[in-house]
Amino acid sequence: MSEESYFCPMPCRYGTIRIDPVASAQHLNDPIAEKEAQGLRTQTYICYLELERQLPFPDEPWYRFAVALVGPRIRPANRKQALTPDMCTPIYPNEAHPTGRVSLHPEPAFPFKNCYFWYRVGLDVRIRSKPDCGLFDATHAICLPVDERFVLSSHASHDRRRQYARLRNRRKNKVALRHYSAHVDNENDNLEDEECVDESDSDVESLASDASNSDCSDYSKDSDATRSEVSLLTADALANMNIFGYPDQGVFNHPIVDFSHDLQEHLDEDNLPNPMDMLAERDALLEYAFRNISSLHRGNVLIVTQDHWESP
To answer: Which of 245 and 145 is assigned the larger pLDDT?
Structure first.
């Protein structure tokens, strides 16, 4: 075993993750849910360990992390959530971006040529510990240096303000359209339905409401704004991350995954998976849980997506 080995993976590093659906469903003690989980096909994905959700201790069965997923191409648009293809950040040696956005430079070099961080695509997971008190070999770990993390935060901040501005403008247009429709005949009612078809989702309304507190007019202060937001986000994260691991039923809705630092051992350049498929796998597990658990225990199944992550 390498000298660079740890009982728990280290944050701010890339790696691969794969959901174990059977282990993820075992806490339900439901034979039907476990049988359905056995039929769930999963893939191995590239991830970035953003944040550890609680203090790690040796001999834990798993470790909670918030992870960002890495895609093998420009991200797809999501009109419902006002997300555009350029809301992504290339990872060097990839330097292609619709607006010429600066690439991230991990250390050592990233092994794949066409990868991107996709804004708002990630999830919370439980990384399974190594059996028999084994260690995670970090010999091949790829790290994102501190200055590169600020670059990524700056890009994410810029994308967030653009997204919120688009949502806020759409919401204003919706209100104006409703007032207009009240003064015209029924033939124009179809116009509201067409223009606002993407507005019905409660997540979009929530995002648009949150956007009212966001200043989208001044991009010249990106650097200072980003550092301030990083501090605020870190404080918010610490306030909600339950770092000492007190009992939390919601944590069992986070899938159990196997993690490795060695990207090339588990993935091939020509067959890198779509990150949205992993979110679909996670949602399938939650669906099994909610459908099969008895109504008496439904309160323990919290089908909630983190508000800074995108749903498929």
So the answer is: 145
Helix 222-240 with 146-181: angle, nearest 10 deg? 90
Confidence at residue 102, expressed as pLDDT on a 0 to 100 scale: 95
Burial class (CB in 10 A: 0-12, 13-18, 19+), 58: exposed
Residues β-bridged to residue 125: 65
309, 122 Cβ separation under 8 angstroms: yes
For the chain, report the end-to-end CA distance as a whole number of angstroms: 39
Q: Where are the alpha helices (DSSP H) in the chain?
A: 21-25, 31-38, 146-181, 189-195, 202-211, 222-240, 263-266, 275-292
What CA–CA distance (Å, rounded) separates 196 from 177? 9
Q: Please, which pLDDT band fits residue 253 given cuts at 50, 70 and 90? A: confident
CA dist 1 and 202 (Å) reads 49
Q: Which residues contact 17 (CB under 8 A, 6 or more apart)?
A: 44, 45, 47, 67, 125, 127, 257, 258, 259, 278
Burial environment of residue 205 by CB neighbours within 10 A (0 to 12, 13 to 18, 19 or more): middle
115-136 pLDDT tens trace: 999 999 999 999 999 988 789 9
Is the pLDDT at 235 greater than 70? The verdict is no
| CA nearest to 45, candidates 251, 290, 237, 255 | 255
Burial of 11 (0-12, 13-18, 19+ CB in 10 A): middle
Establish whether the linkage from the previous residue to 93 is cis, with ω within 30° of 0: yes
Is pLDDT at 243 greater than 60 in this prediction?
A: no
